[in-house]
Please model this.
Amino acid sequence: MKVRQVRHGTVAVRLPSRRCRAMPHPRSEPHENYVLTIILTEYILCSVRIFSKSRLLQFAREYPKARDWLANWHSAVAEAQWTSLAEVRETYRHADAVRAGSGKTVTVFNVCGNHYRLIVAIHYNRDRVYVLMLLPHAEYDRNRWKALL
Model:
């Protein structure tokens, strides 16, 4: 989490997300044992925008076995603040960067114990995740999807 001092008593998170909200800092009152007390009055919580949730719902209807995994993935990603694939792998060990036919890099997640593959485009600099495809493992292995992206 990137934090910087904005003005005396306020801390803000520098993320370009539009869905930021101010929250009171839990330690907004001085503690009597501190010689030098810095009072933080608020901080900003930002989240990742996921495009599109409707596509995830469609995948959940098509592949009911993946419904719970997709819901958990959506919650985890919405709260994540990833800046690189290495940070994604801290949460999802089997996430891989794959080059599509267009030359763009997409991130592939193993879903439900490698039964499905979720293909997304993550824009780390804009805190956005674009859901592209969910494929059964056999269809993913055919590599036809690369030509579509």
